[in-house]
Protein backbone atom coordinates (compact mmCIF):
# COMPACT_ATOMS: atom_id res chain seq x y z
CA UNK A 1 0.00 0.00 0.00
CA UNK A 2 2.27 2.80 -1.21
CA UNK A 3 1.92 6.45 -0.38
CA UNK A 4 3.68 9.06 -2.52
CA UNK A 5 6.90 8.48 -4.44
CA UNK A 6 8.91 11.30 -6.02
CA UNK A 7 8.76 10.91 -9.81
CA UNK A 8 8.61 13.19 -12.84
CA UNK A 9 4.89 12.44 -13.06
CA UNK A 10 4.11 13.50 -9.47
CA UNK A 11 6.49 16.47 -9.66
CA UNK A 12 7.34 15.84 -6.01
CA UNK A 13 10.82 16.15 -4.56
CA UNK A 14 12.23 13.33 -2.42
CA UNK A 15 11.74 13.97 1.30
CA UNK A 16 11.46 12.07 4.57
CA UNK A 17 8.03 10.62 3.70
CA UNK A 18 8.44 10.75 -0.09
CA UNK A 19 11.22 8.48 -1.35
CA UNK A 20 12.83 8.74 -4.77
CA UNK A 21 11.61 6.27 -7.39
CA UNK A 22 14.93 4.39 -7.31
CA UNK A 23 14.96 4.23 -3.52
CA UNK A 24 11.38 2.98 -3.40
CA UNK A 25 12.07 0.38 -6.10
CA UNK A 26 15.05 -0.95 -4.11
CA UNK A 27 12.90 -1.34 -0.98
CA UNK A 28 10.11 -3.00 -3.01
CA UNK A 29 12.48 -5.57 -4.49
CA UNK A 30 13.49 -6.65 -0.99
CA UNK A 31 9.82 -7.27 -0.05
CA UNK A 32 8.80 -9.45 -3.01
CA UNK A 33 7.02 -12.58 -1.81
CA UNK A 34 6.83 -11.58 1.86
CA UNK A 35 3.18 -10.46 2.25
CA UNK A 36 0.04 -9.94 0.17
CA UNK A 37 -0.15 -6.27 1.22
CA UNK A 38 3.05 -4.54 2.13
CA UNK A 39 4.49 -1.12 2.74
CA UNK A 40 8.13 -1.73 1.91
CA UNK A 41 9.41 1.80 2.47
CA UNK A 42 9.94 2.29 6.20
CA UNK A 43 8.41 5.78 6.48
CA UNK A 44 5.35 4.55 4.59
CA UNK A 45 5.06 1.78 7.20
CA UNK A 46 4.93 4.40 9.95
CA UNK A 47 2.17 6.28 8.13
CA UNK A 48 0.25 3.08 7.38
CA UNK A 49 0.33 2.15 11.09
CA UNK A 50 -1.11 5.57 12.02
CA UNK A 51 -3.73 5.45 9.24
CA UNK A 52 -5.01 2.05 10.38
CA UNK A 53 -5.82 3.56 13.80
CA UNK A 54 -8.36 5.96 12.27
CA UNK A 55 -12.04 5.04 11.91
CA UNK A 56 -12.91 4.17 8.30
CA UNK A 57 -15.38 7.04 7.95
CA UNK A 58 -12.72 9.58 9.01
CA UNK A 59 -10.10 8.02 6.76
CA UNK A 60 -12.47 8.09 3.78
CA UNK A 61 -13.37 11.74 4.47
CA UNK A 62 -9.70 12.74 4.73
CA UNK A 63 -8.79 10.88 1.54
CA UNK A 64 -11.70 12.41 -0.39
CA UNK A 65 -10.82 15.90 0.84
CA UNK A 66 -7.13 15.41 -0.02
CA UNK A 67 -7.79 14.24 -3.58
CA UNK A 68 -10.50 16.83 -4.26
CA UNK A 69 -8.03 19.56 -3.24
CA UNK A 70 -5.34 18.03 -5.49
CA UNK A 71 -7.86 17.89 -8.34
CA UNK A 72 -8.84 21.53 -7.80
CA UNK A 73 -5.18 22.60 -7.83
CA UNK A 74 -4.67 20.71 -11.09
CA UNK A 75 -7.73 22.32 -12.67
CA UNK A 76 -6.58 25.78 -11.58
CA UNK A 77 -3.08 25.11 -12.93
CA UNK A 78 -4.41 23.96 -16.31
CA UNK A 79 -6.72 26.97 -16.46
CA UNK A 80 -3.85 29.38 -15.71
CA UNK A 81 -1.82 27.92 -18.61
CA UNK A 82 -4.52 28.94 -21.07
CA UNK A 83 -4.72 32.60 -19.98
Provide an overview of this structure:
This protein has helices at 21-31, 42-52, 56-81. It is mainly α and 83 residues long. The chain folds into two domains: 1-52, no CATH class; 55-83. It is flat. 7% of the residues are buried. The model has no long low-confidence stretch (mean pLDDT 85).
Largest sheet, described in full? none
Radius of gyration: 16 Å
Average residue-wise pLDDT: 85
* Secondary structural class: mainly alpha
Give the total of domains.
Answer: 2
Give the percentage of residues in beta strands.
Answer: under 5%
Distance between the termini: 39 Å
Model regions low in confidence, pLDDT < 50 over at least 5 residues:
none
What sequence of helices (H) and strands (E) makes up the elements?
Answer: HHH
Please report the number of helical segments. Answer: 3
Strand tally is: 0
Shape: flat
Helical proportion? 55-70%
Quick recap of the structure?
With 83 residues, the protein is mainly alpha-helical. It has helices spanning 21-31, 42-52, 56-81. Keywords: Oxidoreductase.
Amino acid sequence: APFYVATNLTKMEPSFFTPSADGYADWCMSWIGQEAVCTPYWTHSIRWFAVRLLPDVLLEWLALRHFLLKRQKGIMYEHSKHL
